[in-house]
Amino acid sequence: MKGAELIFAPLGGCREIGMNLNAYGYGPPDNRRWIVVDVGVTFGDDTTPGVDLIMPDPIWLEGFADQIEAIILTHAHEDHIGAIGWLWPRLRAPIYATPFTAYLVAEKLRERGLADEADLRIMQLREKRQFGPFEVEMVTLTHSIPEPNGLAIRTPLGLILHTGDWKIDADPLIGEDFDQAKIEELGREGILAMVCDSTNVFEEGEAGSEGSARTALIQAVAEQTGRVAITSFASNVARVQSACEAAKANSRSVCLVGRSMLRIVGAAQSVGMLKGYSFVEPEDAADLPHENILYLCTGSQGEPNAALARIARGDHPSVKMGEGDTVIFSSRVIPGNERAIGEIQNMLAERNIRLVTSRQFDIHVSGHPCRDELRRMYMWAKPKISVPVHGERRHIKEHARFALSLQVPQAITPDNGDVIRLAPGPVEVIDQVPAGRLHVDGEVLTSDKAGGMWERKKMAYNGHLSVSVVLAGNKIEDGPIVVSRGFSEPDGRPADESMEPIDEAAEAAISGLKKAELSDDEKIERVLTKAVRRAAEIEFGKRPLVDITIHRV
After folding, report:
1. Model pTM?
2. Nearest Cα to 226, choosing from 348, 331, 332?
């Protein structure tokens, strides 16, 4: 095709570990066809009060949504599928996923009322399909969830290997083995670019095997005498199975606690996994001897509404734990969750519950490749271009340096919003497009640039002042009255006394206006805002959010 280019454009996942959304385009600039790979989320934190989910803003893709051939999902982690129910109405392309992933995606579509509208199609492991100018083949890898897939994306201008999330696990326990032969075959075919996971690029060695984690988990449970709870990522079905095996080896029945745990187990059993395991209900588990029960709980990252947090607070309706019992954390600490996890662990300690973590036993292994695994992948794939993704800027920069040290001819460090031409010619950024974020605020999807979040953070850190005044023409009838929220009471003084300087500043500001100015609402608002904010800064060291209300009678 005359003037055709092969394009890669990440809208998420290149400034964070999570929130993945990638677009591949082929064709001349005025007539490109596209596929989208993954539509994920990240999670809110202290900087986004009230926001649970954050996702890429697809406004750029919306402009040519009718040119998108397919949305292809590599695996079922939230940072790869979590936004599909929110963003599909803006893209409206058919969704392709393997059976386990499709089961969970179908639930997300049902939650958003899209079950009968969205076009969700099953793509089997190792299947190959044509999407316009793209031939996409599923490549079986290993990760910390069932059915993780790389994508071999063939185009008239070259072959791309999009790895998704992966590691090299010699004993994955559930699912198929890492398909080294296919990677080597693709390398011989000739890989133009490898778009690759950067999560553990700073870690030497290898991530480790689920098989070794199972052995350690069985040993850890064997050393406990009372009730045992294991908390882990619910999506790690191999770890769920290992917990079941640890229970079986130690004469314990397993009780699933938490909606995510129940949902993931249901998805696994729907595709033939976890067969032969039975689970007891929480109400029945409470009647079992303490040494014969093992709870498998959500909440390993300190989520305040998850099962483990409720157990730690003592307000779970059917699971009670205390002195003589043990909670085993078979998970890693995701950066940013340290404080939340620490709070949960402190609450458990207050109840005299023993804590077991990976410091005592090797009960967790990462799902992402360390440097030795990356080295092997590059040796097998032999790409001409390294395109690191799935990382913060420091991860992506280091990954590019590492790839070049392995004799990869070219490497680029993409940022969210970069439009990168992979072929023809040398790899380069040819454009920068909008790559904002959307917040799920309650049930509202809103831009992170919307004023509401700025105001919420402003109030959280600086407080709020509301000033009202009543005027009749150019005469003050009542006020100004100042109402404050979120201010401390210095030196133990009553709140009304500590606000006197602000009241006086408002009074002085409006009294200083000329009669003609009292007819100008904008002038009154500017003068009062400036006066009370300045007084608050002097008295409290804060610059609050200020609202002025002018009543005219």
Report:
1. 0.88
2. 348
